[in-house]
Each structure stands twice: as C-alpha cells, then as structure tokens.
Write a structure and sequence with these properties.
- By secondary structure, the protein is α+β, with helices and mostly antiparallel strands.
- It folds into three domains: 7-129, Nucleoside Triphosphate Pyrophosphohydrolase; 132-218, no CATH class; 243-313, Orthogonal Bundle (Arc Repressor Mutant, subunit A), CATH 1.10.10.10.
- The protein contains eight helices and eight strands, in the order βββαβββααααααββα.
- It has helices at residues 55-67, 143-157, 162-176, 188-197, 225-239, 256-267, 273-283, 310-313; strands spanning 7-20, 23-28, 44-46, 73-80, 100-110, 123-126, 286-293, 301-306.
- The strands form two sheets. Strands 1, 2, 3, 4, 5 and 6 form a six-stranded mixed β-sheet that branches.
- Helix 2 (143-157) packs antiparallel against helix 3 (162-176).
- The longest helix is centred in the middle third of the chain and has 15 residues, at 143-157.
- The termini are far apart.
Length: 325
C-alpha cells in the first residue's frame, strides 16, 4: 500500500502461442465472472509474494491452475502499468475499500497446441481473429488490412491544423508504411497503438459499449490483453530472424514445407520457397533424419530435425525472412 492509500498489486500475464494447421494460435480464458463473454483474456493471475518465489514460477503456477498447461519455453516481454489498465473482475479477488493499481508482468510462451483440460472457457484461438490486419499471406492485402489502412488514412487527414496532420502522417508512415507501401512485420504493437489512438478498436471505447473497429472484424480482449498479444507477436516476429525459437513450435521431425508454412503463419506473409530453403541450408539449422512423410498427397517429402549444435556454432542462428528488412 502506498502512502496515499492506493494499493499496488503485481499481475502475471501469459501470451502462450502455437501454430496449428498454418494458423498462429493463442490460449485464451473467458471466465464468466469477467463480464462480457465475448471478451477473451490471456491467462492472468496476481503474484503471491509468499507462495511464488519468482515471477516466472508464479506465472507457471497460474497457467497450470487456469488452463492446466505446463509451460516450456518462456521469456519476459514487458511490464504494463497504465492506470486503470485492468478491469476490476480481472483481479480475481474481492475488491478492497482502497483504490488499487495493478501492473502486469507479461510473458511470451511457445508450445505446440494440445487440448487443455482446464475448464471455464479455456480455448485456443486464432491470433488473427484479434489482429486481422496482421495477416498478409494472400496475394492481395486482406480486407481487414485494407480497411485499417483506409481508416488510418482518413484519421491522418481529419485535423484542420497542418502540424497535427503531419504528426499523424509521420506515425502512420512508421507503423503502416503508408504511401511507400512498406510493411514492417515487426511493428505489430505500433499498429495496434495507432488504431487505439484513432478510436478504431473496441478498447478505445472506455465503457465498452461499442466496437468501433471500422469493419475490420477484429475481436476485443479483456483489459489491455490485446496490447499484450500485439507485443508478443511483434517480439516473436523479430526473434525468429536471429534465434531458432521457431523450432519450439515444431514437432521433433518435420518437412521443410511445414517449417516454411509455420514461419509464414507467424510472419503474416508468404516467402519465396527457394530463397527460404537457401537461408535454412546456409544457416545449418536442420539435418536430415532419414525418414519421409508419405502423407503429402504427392511425392514423399524428406523429414528433418533441428540441429542443436548450431547453438554453439553461431551467436544468431535464426531463420531469417527473405526480402524483409
């Protein structure tokens, strides 16, 4: 408790990601006492200063309790501490008479999707359901992305003051690559923040009475959990370029086609087949197992495995993204 009567609590949030059937997925929980059933949330809990020896152990405990999942790879993302960032029901405890402020330490976790035995609305959901403008794997920009670009363009032109128009245009160019048609896949959080500021996502509405998403067909999340998810996806998109984290999402044996489709699912873009395989070969990231996958519908495909020796050979053994900055 601070001197002015405001309590401070530490929350723990987990963005648990997987790729299944070429779709990036995230674990959500939708407990009924959190209010609107259409607002999914990431697994979240309050740090118990006595029971949890470390923040990460506290997180793992909450995830196991809420979703009955045992986490493998995890890394700390960011600390979210904006005032009034957490809806009261998310505190999972009876409110006190004093005001409380909750900061949340968010983590990124990578795994392979498995059916959770946790009840109470635990589910795996498509990440692009919440961030649809981030999926650009089609030949043309998705409808959601085009609508977002159009809406941001209108927002930039709206102010009468030239200085404010220029400020907005500069931010839009940085986040969305307007005019120059340059889309930086890593700027997931920057795009969400700009849509939030422009009043174009549901979380922009303080009382949650409307979904002002401009027709993007995006789904809201509880509190600031969509901001946390955007941070996690942006971090992962950047990290697959210089660390072999992609293999945390792969089975022990896989085809190069399956590996490419997994990278594409996370990056939200299509990659040139030969360029991608050239990068994989050059990096020495995989090795043949001697097995084949005969269930490809055509010629059997060779099976590969992650070559862990690469971790000792190079400082930055990432997959890389052909044609990306």
């Amino acid at each position: 408790m601070t001197g002015d009567g405001v309590g401070l609590r530490v929350g723990l949030s987990a963005a648990i990601l997987a790729v299944t059937d070429e779709q990036p997925r995230v674990v959500t929980v939708g407990r009924s006492e959190w209010g609107r059933s259409d607002k999914a949330a990431l697994p979240f809990g309050i740090l118990d200063a006595f029971a949890h020896r470390t923040l990460e152990l506290g997180l793992r405990s909450w995830v196991q309790e809420l979703a009955e999942l045992v986490l493998g790879y995890t890394e700390q993302l960011y600390t979210f501490g904006d005032r009034d960032r957490v809806d009261r029901p998310l505190l999972t405890a009876a409110p006190s008479e004093d005001e409380e402020r909750v900061i949340s330490v968010a983590y990124l976790a990578l795994t392979r999707e498995a059916e959770s035995e946790g009840g109470d609305g635990v589910d795996w959901r498509d990440i692009y359901r919440f961030l649809p403008w981030e999926d650009g794997r089609g030949e043309q920009p998705s409808r959601s992305r085009q609508l977002a670009l159009d809406a941001i363009g209108r927002w930039c032109r709206k102010p009468r003051a030239r200085a404010e128009r220029e400020r907005r245009e500069e931010r839009a160019q940085f986040a969305f690559g307007l005019d120059r048609e340059v889309w930086d896949s890593e700027k997931v959080l920057e795009r969400y923040e700009l849509l939030f500021e422009a009043g174009l996502v549901a979380e922009s509405d303080p009382d949650g009475s409307s979904w002002p998403d401009g027709g993007f067909s995006s789904r809201p999340m509880a509190a600031d959990h969509r901001r946390i998810l955007a941070t996690a996806l942006g971090r992962l998109r950047a990290k697959i370029k210089y660390r072999p984290v992609i293999f945390e999402l792969m089975p022990e044996q896989f085809t190069l086609f399956e590996l490419q489709r997994t990278v594409e699912a996370l990056a939200g873009l299509r990659l040139h087949k030969q360029n991608f395989r050239r990068l994989i070969d050059r990096g020495g990231l995989v090795e043949l197992t001697g097995g084949v996958n005969a269930q490809t519908g055509g010629r059997p495909a060779k099976l590969y495995a992650f070559r862990r020796d690469v971790l000792r050979e190079r400082r930055a053994p990432g997959v890389g993204l052909p044609g990306q900055r």
